[in-house]
């Protein structure tokens, strides 16, 4: 039997980790910008289109209700890669709500019309995505920590436990968290023992990971990828994490599961291990 309840273990680990987490900083945060953004939202929010925690203002501006870490990630990716992401104009926190004021990218989600694309069109999209992922994975990590872009707390509502969690001093500690603290001597299940042995093995340094490369988060105009959006689940993760998270498609995106191997390196062993983890330690 586990020495500690999984929920208690995760809560304890998060409490300890929070004390060492690095904070993300606001971007271009001035009193005037705050006033203008909040005033614009008050005036336009009733009339403006909203989708997925984003309010679209007149012109090519939108405001996302997210975290300073996501804004920092967008800036980091923009500065260090050629991956197309929304430009961040400013980000700040007001009354416990974080606002990211950013560029609205003109493009359509790949989910719209993907099945009607020709094989040639799909191949062009796959090729661009492969290049973008390869570029992102070449970003050098500063430490072996599993963390957000700034070394701070991660976010993922799909993982069992609090949506905000970590950071972790290494990949093995992250894996232990995912299992709710369970160690090999605490189980008689052969597949769980196999998972733990894999989890506790030797790992390369973390790689920067989007964490949700769904067709809903990739924007295109024609055959050109013009934007990768929704970076709230991003961070420095084990090198398999991009693949296994992309494979977990939502009900509105099931067709995309068949496309993943066309732009991410297939990792059948990692996928098999993740399926064991999901079976015993949470829905995702």
UniProtKB/TrEMBL annotation:
First and last residue of the signal peptide: none
CDD domains: APH_ChoK_like
Record SUPFAM superfamilies: Protein kinase-like (PK-like)
Name of the featured protein: Aminoglycoside phosphotransferase domain-containing protein
Residue ranges, annotated region (Disordered): 1-25
Pfam families: APH
Domain Aminoglycoside phosphotransferase: 69-238
Domain of life: Eukaryota
């Amino acid at each position: 039997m586990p020495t500690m309840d999984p929920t208690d273990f995760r809560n304890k680990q998060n409490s300890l980790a929070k004390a060492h987490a690095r904070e993300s900083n606001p971007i271009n945060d001035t009193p005037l910008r705050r006033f203008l953004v909040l005033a614009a939202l008050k005036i336009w929010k009733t009339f403006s289109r909203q989708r997925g925690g984003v309010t679209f203002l007149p012109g090519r501006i939108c405001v996302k209700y997210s975290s300073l870490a996501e804004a920092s990630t967008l800036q980091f990716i923009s500065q260090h890669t050629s991956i197309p992401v929304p430009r961040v104009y400013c980000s700040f926190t007001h009354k416990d709500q974080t606002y990211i004021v950013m560029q609205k990218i003109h493009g359509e989600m790949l989910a719209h019309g993907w099945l009607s694309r020709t094989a040639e069109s799909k191949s062009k999209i796959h090729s661009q995505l492969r290049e973008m992922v390869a570029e992102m994975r070449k970003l050098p990590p500063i430490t072996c920590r599993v963390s957000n872009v700034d070394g701070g707390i991660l976010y993922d509502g799909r993982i069992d436990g609090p949506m905000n969690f970590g950071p972790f001093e290494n990949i093995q500690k992250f894996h232990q968290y995912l299992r709710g603290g369970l160690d090999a001597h605490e189980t008689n299940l052969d597949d769980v023992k196999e998972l733990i042995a894999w989890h506790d093995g030797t790992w390369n340094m973390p790689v920067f990971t989007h964490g949700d490369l769904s067709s809903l988060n990739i924007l295109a105009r024609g055959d050109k990828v013009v934007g990768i959006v929704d970076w709230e689940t991003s961070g420095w993760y084990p090198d398999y994490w991009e693949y296994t998270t992309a494979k977990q498609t939502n009900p509105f995106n099931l067709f995309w599961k068949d496309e993943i191997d066309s732009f991410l390196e297939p990792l059948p062993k990692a996928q098999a291990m993740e399926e064991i983890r999901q079976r015993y330690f949470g829905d995702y």
